[in-house]
Each structure stands twice: as C-alpha cells, then as structure tokens.
Design goal:
This protein has 461 residues and is an alpha+beta fold. Helix content is 30%, strand content 25%. Helix 4 packs across helix 6. The structure holds one RNA strand of 75 nucleotides.
RNA sequence: UCCCGAGUAGCUCAGCGGUAGAGCGGGCGGCUGUUAACCGCUAGGUCGCAGGUUCGAAUCCUGCCUCGGGAGCCA
C-alpha cells in the first residue's frame, strides 16, 4: 500500500478506505484495552488519531509508544465517534520504526519556550510552532516567485561571493582560503595576491548592483537568495545570514516602485492567507491574536504615502515623548517608524524622499538638491520591511555623489559604465524575507522564523 | 557594542541569609473511547562558573559565561 499524507487524508470527503500513514507520535493516551495515538507527518498542523486495541498482534508495542517515536501504521479510515476530529484510523498493523527514549528525548507533550527549542534546533521542526513556521515560510517563498513570474520578471541568481567591499550595507564577512595560522605577509598585511581569488573577497550584503546590471538589459529582474551582514547586531529583528528579495525594474521611477512594493506585499499576504489558514490560525491563537486581521487589513486597504519631510512634521506635532528628538536631517529611529505605522496610521506606511545625507550614494538626487528618491515601507511591529529607491542614472551626478561619500570610483567602473552606455531610469527595493515571515506569523523573534539562524556567537546548527 | 533583566529537577517556575519545593514530563500500578485524558505511588538537584562577605549563602557582593528584552547598525 502507498503511503498517504495526513493532510490528504483529512481533506477527504468520506471515510472507509484502508490507508497507510507514516509519521511521528505526538501523544499517546491509553486505557486498559485501547490506546489512542496522535500522529503527525508535517504535511499539516493537525494530527491524525490512530486507535489501537487488542486485535492488534503487537498491541503492547502500541501501548508503550512515547512522544517522538516514528511509526508506520495501516488500517481503515473511519468516522470518529469521539469529539475533536472527523476521522480516525483503526489500526490493523503497526510497525515501530524508531523509538524515542522518553528519559532523554527533550520534546514533551506540552509547550516549550522558543528559547529552549533553539538549543535543540535539530528537533524543533517536530513542534507545532516550527512545523507551521516552515510551511508558512515555504508558502511565502513560493508566492514571491509567483508574483514576479506572473509579471514577467526574470529570476536572477546574484553571486554570494563578491570582491566589492563597500556596497554600503554594513560590515562584511571575509572569504579566504589563506591559512590563518600562517598568513602570507606582504608590507605588513595579509597578501591577498596569494588568496584564492587573488584579491580580497567577501560574502555579499546585497544582490542589488548585479540586479541593476541585468535590469539594464532584460528590463525586469529579481534576486531571491541569501545575504550576509557581519554586524554585531543583537536584536529580535537581525540575522547575520538572511534571505533577501530584490526586484530591479528598468524604465521605472519612484512612484512605479512604491506601487510595485504595495502590490507585492498585498499579493504575498493574500496568498498565505488563502493557502495556510490553519497555520495562521495557530499563530493567531498562540503568538499574536492580531496576525490574521493585520494581514487581511493589508490585503484590503491601501498603504499610506508620505514624504520624509511630512513624517518629521507629523512626529514633531504628535505630542509623543520620544527618546530621541526628531528633526529634519536625521534618520528616523525605530520608535519613530513604529509611531507612524502603528499609532498615527495603523496601516503600512511608505515614506519617501529622504535627505541625501542619510541615504546611499546610488539613490537618485531630486531637483531640490537635498533629498533622494528613496522609499521605506514601514509595517506595524516590524518597522522597516522594505527599503528601496530610484537609482541615480545620470553619470555626472552619480560621480559627484560617490565622491561626496568618499568612494573610490575606480572600484565602480562597471557600475558607471551602465550610465555611460544606454542609461535609463530604473528603481528597485530589498525585502527581508525573514522579517516578512516574522510579520506573517507574529513570531516575536527572527531567530524562530529561520530554519537555522545565524547570529553573533551562534552558528551551532 | 551599549543599557536593563534572568540563569534552581528533563521542561516551566516558586523560594531571596538557617541547610531544596511545586506543576508538568519520566518510571510503576489502575482505568472499555481518550482529546496536552484521568486516579494513586515513586525516582530525580555541585541552585550557571569562579572568588568574596558571614557562625551559616540558592539567597548578599565582585568578576566571568550564557540566554532574553530594549537601543544602535539595517532588511
């Protein structure tokens, strides 16, 4: 008999057939002559109830199963007389595939803290929380590809190793094959000529510059892959390794980009609402009772738009006591962003046109000479979920901005070439994938929406 | 990196100067259909590590480690 996934069994219209299920025991409840097993195989949040009685030749085995044991069970699917489930299986045969010694198996049939589960990250996928997280994460990743593919965007794989050491997005991890215990020294420093690539190389912090290269040939592209930041950030919103989605669109200005960002977020959140209702209900019940209503709100309402100048004005007149005072020219702090999106508007907010001094060199300078065509999408609880801009496509102005930022134009000769030959207006943004999963699930800590989170002093799994 | 807070049984925590506790989980027994089942019995701890104060330290002090919350950096 072929194995049937529990999700497929529970979706059936009627009982009656014999089925084979394979999975892990969540709990066992025993009376003298009958044992109830709850089996989960990860295909859905729900467990399948298996009823074993003395008609089973190895009933004693069934009666001794504990949480975490793996089993293969065949039997008839029947309507359940008990409350709590529609169907159950009356076991005709039961094979114990792997035991899980209850003296040492760390998962119990009760709630564990996420902090404890991080210490046993190899077993936490077996919990309801991490199973649901993995399914939501998978669905969001699929929705992201669908959104862009439906719009004719080309999926571009940006390199993970780069020789550009100043992409302006934070500290980078060095990539080297040099023997750190016996470094070749030249002029008092490590001799990179001896290194694998013959020059210093790093893990990428962004695929944006490479995406621009292809956008200026293929029009609409997106990257979706891992990026790395060696910042010593210890917060619930930062990882040293995280996935980023970076669309780059040619013949597009800032207004078109904000529309794309809004359509994009609405699409992926609508998609996850439609395809993961049970998992979202789980998060709504146990982690954040406003998750579903927030996602529904985003899907159905338009995002607020305001300029940085307007945002500063709102903050200054809010009467709120901020730890950091607000004035034009400084970047918005977390508390300011959250005030805007959570209290003042109550919905996602797109803030545009920031002072050029606080933004990257490649963002397009506006006619006022003071602001750049940048945008941040702010959402409740997370703050900044998307950051993007229209890119500076005018070579002379780009050169001037690079000099102001203290960058060596020699290192960006190819980036400048794109402006020398057939330059066009273009724009793009970056979306932190884990922050998106965090937002969609209500999980408070980003370490719990990554299968294997990397943070300072932690790469154990 | 900075500011707070916490580390006591497998897990979640109480105890906060007088010599170690509970619930859950585990083991054993009971129970004819349970829903994180229920009932009874039971085992289980260098109280994060290292110093110090004290007649006496889980409890007070110092340092370190780990974890968490907030901030900065950002996605």
């Amino acid at each position: 008999m072929l194995r049937t996934k529990i999700r497929e069994i529970l979706d059936r219209d009627s009982a009656g057939d014999d089925v084979l299920v394979q999975g892990w025991v969540k709990t066992r409840r025993s009376s003298r002559n009958v044992t109830f097993l709850q089996i989960n195989d990860g295909s859905t949040l729900k467990d399948l109830q298996v009823v074993a009685d003395e008609s089973l030749s190895n009933f004693a085995d069934a009666d001794s199963l504990t949480t975490g044991c793996s089993v293969s069970i065949s039997g008839q699917l029947v309507d359940s007389p008990g409350k709590g489930q529609r169907f159950e299986i009356h076991a005709k045969s039961l094979e114990v595939m792997g035991l899980a010694d209850p003296d040492t198996y760390p998962l119990q049939k009760k709630r564990h803290t996420v902090e404890f589960l991080r210490e046993i990250a190899h077993l936490r996928p077996r919990t309801n929380t991490f199973g649901a997280m993995a399914r939501v994460r998978n669905t969001l990743a699929f929705a992201i590809h669908r959104f862009f593919q439906e719009r004719g965007f080309l999926f571009l794989q940006a390199p993970m190793i780069t020789a550009s050491d100043a992409e302006g997005a934070g500290a980078m991890f060095r990539v080297t094959t040099l023997d750190l215990d016996q470094l070749p020294i030249k002029n008092g420093a490590a001799d990179s000529a001896e290194d694998f690539f013959g020059e210093p190389t790093f893990l990428t912090v962004s695929g944006q510059l490479e995406a621009e290269i292809f956008a200026l040939a293929l029009s609409d592209v997106y990257t979706f892959g891992p990026t790395f930041r060696a910042e010593n950030s210890n917060t619930s919103r930062h990882l040293a390794e995280f996935w980023m989605v970076e669309p780059e669109v040619a013949f597009c200005e800032l207004d078109g980009l904000t529309e794309l960002a809004e359509d994009f977020l609405k699409y992926i959140f609508t998609y996850v609402l439609d395809h993961c209702p049970e998992d979202l209900a789980f998060f709504n019940q146990w982690y954040d009772e406003s998750v579903i209503s927030t996602l529904e709100g985003i899907a159905s309402s338009s995002f607020e738009r305001m300029t940085y100048t307007e945002a500063v004005d709102i903050l200054q007149r809010s009467g709120e006591k901020f730890e950091f005072p607000v004035h034009w020219g400084t970047d918005l702090q977390s508390e300011h962003e959250r005030y805007l999106t959570e209290k003042h508007i109550g919905r996602p907010v797109i803030v545009t046109d920031y002072p050029k001094e606080i933004k990257a060199f490649y963002m397009r300078l506006s006619d006022d000479g003071k602001t750049v065509r940048a945008m941040d999408v702010l959402v409740p609880r997370i703050g900044e979920i998307i950051g993007g801009s229209q890119r500076e496509e005018r070579k002379d102005i780009l050169l001037e901005r690079m000099r102001e930022s203290g960058l060596d134009e020699q290192n960006y000769w190819w980036y400048l070439d794109l402006r020398s030959y057939g330059t066009v207006p273009h724009a793009g943004f970056g979306l932190g994938f884990e922050r998106t999963v965090q937002f969609a699930t209500g999980m408070p800590n980003i370490r719990d929406v990554s299968p294997f989170p990397r943070t300072p002093k932690s790469a154990g799994f």
